[in-house]
Amino acid sequence: MSRHAFDDAIALTAQSDGTWLGHTSPAYANMVGPFGGIMAAQMLQAVLQHPQRLGDPVALTVNFAAALADGSFTVQARPARTNRSTQHWMIEVLQQGQTVLTATAFTALRRDTWGADEHTMPAVPRPLDAPLPERAGRVEWINRYEMRFVEGDFPAAWDGRDHGISRTRLWVRDNPPRPLDFASLTALSDVFFPRIWRRRASPVPIGTVSMTVYFHADVARLRDVGAGYLLGQAQAQAFHRGYFDQTAQLWSEAGALLVTTHQIVYYKE
Amino acid sequence: MSRHAFDDAIALTAQSDGTWLGHTSPAYANMVGPFGGIMAAQMLQAVLQHPQRLGDPVALTVNFAAALADGSFTVQARPARTNRSTQHWMIEVLQQGQTVLTATAFTALRRDTWGADEHTMPAVPRPLDAPLPERAGRVEWINRYEMRFVEGDFPAAWDGRDHGISRTRLWVRDNPPRPLDFASLTALSDVFFPRIWRRRASPVPIGTVSMTVYFHADVARLRDVGAGYLLGQAQAQAFHRGYFDQTAQLWSEAGALLVTTHQIVYYKE
Known about the structure:
- The structure is a homodimer of 269-residue chains.
- Helix content of chain A is 14%, strand content 38%.
- Chain A is mainly beta and 269 residues long.
- In chain A, strand 1 and strand 2 form a beta hairpin.
- Chain A starts with a helix and ends with a strand.
């Protein structure tokens, strides 16, 4: 059996100087360069594979500093601070000696405590009652995800009207299905198409500048999900002078809140 | 006229090696170490004062890696990538050669575009119709802010019940009033008491681990606010095995969304 395209895409090779060598993957190509989610996953992967890593991911912020060229790149991951049960990471991706991505990550050993999901899953049709899109994605990475929209699909017409709301809800999983882990959950956090395309029904040029993922899922919750569907919800809060934000959630089909995530995105008009 | 305590607290002195020297400030003391918002403001300040800085802040992520000791500290701010109209920063705060905070920031020259605030300000009483707390803050930094709660004040009784919702809404500004700027807006983004204290009415030990601020305010919007009140709203989305998140917004009294901000917070039970 061949390896899943996701595992190929996030593969890193250890270098003798402690850095990692990665490469862009045609299977996750975006309009220009790779799908941001796959780069975010790969930066987390550099932490997950690191021999000094303590605990599991709780927070990750990735900054997209420049367009990545197709080909290889170097990932530097450094534990900036290690405490008894927590660890802070600084990460940088370089091509031709130039920084193209920066990131920080936080890992921790979790303890059992009281807990609750305050942002509960909205009532939506079940995954198999939501239609599969008939079209193939305009960019290759879209085809690596099974997306079943229940609200706020791509606009039926790019009419440039202000639709007043940017919210999207969809069932989503890897295509073909793959058991969920921290890396794939990171990539899934970036699966939403740009909110301004929804709000304005206008496919203006955009680019994510910074993205933060908070992991409420631990290993047990990931195991419970397996290769199942996640419900994703995303909405913008503000669009102002070239930048809009997006706030998003990912729940398991059973209703466990796995991730809350945010990003700020450049847009051009 | 003496300088505002906030300006004293965020003051940085340039060092010959390109780093900055800062010091903790008793006026913004927290239970242990300084108020996180003042440290976040100071890290942004190192970017704002940097001779190579391009544009105004759009995004900031601060990671609280260790307890800061009272006294001086060193701030290193480095432009990791400078593009035509945008810039990515990596920032680190050290004490005794050890990393205590890490951060990334993104600055940009903004262009005029279509814009909208999708998350509109909730209907609440006006600032002067909301009561001033009668008590002084249990920690010193609380006294540096005028806080007028309109919903979700500190629990009247620490009864340990699950109140089912963690939302707080309050009018807030510096005390004494001070014209809003990017640094003070950053500190104000961390002004909310821990959501678990509200949800559970239990003052368990907590600590912010990572905080992200997206600035929708530009210089013109800051000028419009002046020393006026901001409406702040904060709510948790999930509490799970030692960490909860918080999503928050700050609007001007006129209803402009100035900041959307998020944090993930450690809690102990």
